[in-house]
Design a protein that fits this description.
Largest sheet: 4 strands, mixed
Structural class: alpha+beta
Strand content: 5-15%
Shape: globular
CATH superfamily of the largest domain: Butyryl-CoA Dehydrogenase, subunit A, domain 3
CATH architecture of the largest domain: Up-down Bundle
Order of helices and strands: HHEEHHEEHHEEEEEEEEHHHHHHHH
Oligomer: single chain
Number of domains: 3
Distance between the termini: 39 Å
CATH class of the largest domain: Mainly Alpha
Helix content: 40-55%
Radius of gyration: 23 Å
Strand order of the largest sheet: 5-8-9-12
Number of helices: 14
Length: 428
């Protein structure tokens, strides 16, 4: 077994580091842009007088960094070459995401906005795999240059993780001789609606509550009459771009149907494993950052005449966290490598439990590492002059989003006990 990373990947990490230092760091320091990352970050990012939304100058800075990364050939790295990407593997993406997060807060990678100079762009692949020829030709270029932005309307106020009891419904309706659908319902946590040009909205078009069959995805222009942002939910980690959205007598033509009619949940699941393994790697990197910063501080800080690090009460909790980081890194990279050898259906049937394990444990580990870093640093660690409170507040979200950790553990449990997966028990 060879645990060495491929040379082309380590070379690419060095190339990314050079790009960050030459292009991204100077932009981060320019015009007091550092206010978005130092102790002023929450106030600098958040327009508290405008529903708590991200300030326009903050989002403009993120976009400028992404444009620089795209020009340099980095932004589309995981996408196929047909989209200007480099066919980046799952293994490569986990290594890159961990590497970025381990650098701490910065313009190179800020997951509060799902921003990175090496982006995911899952909607591009969804359009390739599920879109009609017309949808593909209309949307893809705009998705890549960000002139089109798609929100994702799946979760509902009364059902959370359970999409199968969806109450948003669409019924057939013809207008002016054009076949279409009339949508009524509500969606929750529809991230990015403040700038989205369209919302991929999941609706029940047939079937009974609780059935996965009968749910359809539709691409709804955000300006369609009847689409309304009811409120933006203020969160533990501001700014917010997570609204509750109502759909009241919203009519769309039949061409808005995205993917298979009545099998729309396949779209929601299509990129879930890639998202979860990469997000797990980000949490792992952030945990590593918290531990390393705590070690450096404990060696430098000298209360009562000796290094704080000499106290076992400081050493042992950090040793436990560092041990978990080392073990989890191996599982994440092994799982990502295995994903690269399989098709998406094979990943779902054979590796879904391992992806779930990586994700829920990494998110929990990151929160524990950030909490311990605050404790080691004392009062200054609790302040916003250190990044740990921000890391904690942000990564605490991931224990709920991308599949709550209970949902992830349920998936792992189903594989472990033979209800799902390659070792599924057969009742004789």
């Amino acid at each position: 077994m060879d645990f060495n990373l491929p040379k082309e990947l380590t070379d690419y990490l060095a190339e990314l580091d050079s790009f960050i230092e030459k292009e991204i760091r100077p932009l981060e320091q320019q015009d007091d842009n550092i206010r978005f990352f130092d102790h002023r970050r929450e106030w600098a990012r958040t327009d508290f007088d405008n529903d708590g939304l991200p300030r326009e100058e903050w989002e403009a800075l993120l976009k400028k960094a992404r444009r620089l990364a795209d020009k340099a050939g980095h932004l589309r790295f995981p996408l196929p070459k047909e989209f200007g990407g480099k066919d980046g593997s799952n293994l490569a993406m986990t290594v890159i995401r961990e590497h970025f997060a381990a650098k701490g807060l910065g313009l190179h990678n800020d997951l509060q906005n799902e921003h990175s100079i090496v982006a995911n762009n899952p909607f591009v692949l969804l359009l390739r795999d599920f879109g009609t020829k017309e949808q593909y030709e209309y949307f893809v270029d705009g998705m890549l240059d960000e002139s089109f932005q798609l929100a994702f309307g799946l979760t509902e106020p009364d059902h959370g993780s359970d999409a199968t009891h969806m109450e948003t419904r669409a019924v057939p309706e013809t207008r002016d001789g054009v076949d279409g659908w009339l949508i009524n319902g509500e969606k929750m946590w529809t991230t990015g609606m403040h700038t989205a040009t369209h919302c991929v909205t999941f609706v029940r078009t047939s079937g009974d509550a609780g059935s996965a069959k009968g749910i359809t995805a539709m691409i709804v222009p955000s300006e369609t009459p009847g689409v309304k942002v009811e409120e933006y939910l203020w969160t533990f980690n501001m700014p917010t771009d997570h609204p509750r959205v109502s759909f009241t007598n919203v009519w769309v033509p039949a061409t808005a149907v995205f993917g298979p009619l009545e099998d729309g949940l396949a779209i929601a699941q299509h990129f879930v494993h890639e998202n979860r393994i990469r997000q797990a790697a980000s949490s792992l990197g952030a945990a590593h950052f918290c531990i390393q910063e705590s070690v450096k501080y404990a060696r430098k800080r000298k209360p009562f005449g000796q290094e704080l690090a000499r106290n076992q009460g400081i050493q042992f909790p950090l040793v436990e966290l560092a041990t978990q980081v080392e073990m989890l890194r191996l599982l994440i990279r092994k799982t990502a490598w295995e994903m690269d050898q399989m098709s998406k259906p094979e990943i779902a049937n054979l590796l879904s439990d391992k992806v779930a394990m990586c994700n829920y444990w990494a998110n929990r580990l990151c929160c524990e590492a950030a909490d311990r870093a605050m404790q080691v640093h004392g009062a200054i660690g609790y302040s916003r002059h250190k990044p740990f409170e921000h890391i904690y507040r942000h990564h605490r979200r991931y224990r709920i989003t991308e599949g709550a950790e209970e949902i992830q553990m349920r998936k792992a449990g189903a594989f472990l006990f033979g209800y799902l997966g390659p070792n599924k028990w057969r009742e004789d």
